[in-house]
Amino acid sequence: MTPNGNNQGLSEKDFIQEEYPKNPRPFWISLGIVLLVSSMLWLISSWYNQEMSLQYQESPFLQVTNRDMSLFLWQFTDHMRANVKEKTSYLPGFLYLEKVGVDPAAAEQYVVAPPELIFLYHVWDLFLRPEFSPRVIPKEEFKRFLREADEWQPVYWTKAPQGYRDLVQHMDRITEEDLNPLSQEQLPQVVRLAFQGWKNYFIEGDAINALEPTYAEIQSFLERHPHYARNYWHNILETSYPNYLNAFEHPIAHLDALVPKSELAPFLRVAFYNDQKSRAHQ
To answer: Which residues cross the membrane (predicted)?
Structure first.
């Protein structure tokens, strides 16, 4: 409305905005920089992957798959991804939210882990893996294991022997309640290791933690499993468990006394528990 009371409509020119001349050079320069940086990152990534591939091919030390590492971690649970504070770039092939264990899709890939953890895996593989204590394998528990640790389903394990594939496919036809007597072709050693580790962690954890062995019992265990002795682990456990089996460096006066918790590392507790269960069914 004008001062004299008359309405005055807006004309078309009132909506027209003046355009200022644009300089296209900053846009193309920015785009060029983005493309250059992207190309450099791609080249660096490609070079890094090639270098790592060569390192894996040339170094047996690094040729450890996530599947291999998972067997070790069931006994050395302190090193699981779920149990460490800093998870970035640490065992990315392992899950810790939806499940605790290896990602089935990444099971056959080489593990990404600190060198000291890969070294510890090799120590376990050399000394402790052969000292496996076979136990009863209840069929129903094994079926649950396959559901929860699905990386051991043949679809995710390309190297699974045919006998094992047939076992999994026709599990309901198996009449035996204990699968332990099955052949290695039907139930390979690695699967037995995985099942026992899974059961220790998810079912038997409280019982393992409640163990109170005497010096006599541990001494008897060490006679059957000598690679758990202090001399093999003293340097490795110097920081985490400095008192590991410390009393066994000298003659023990009271063998019926309980071994202090400070001398029992978790991996020893697990092995002692499995040994006791194994011998109970012999």
So the answer is: 27-48
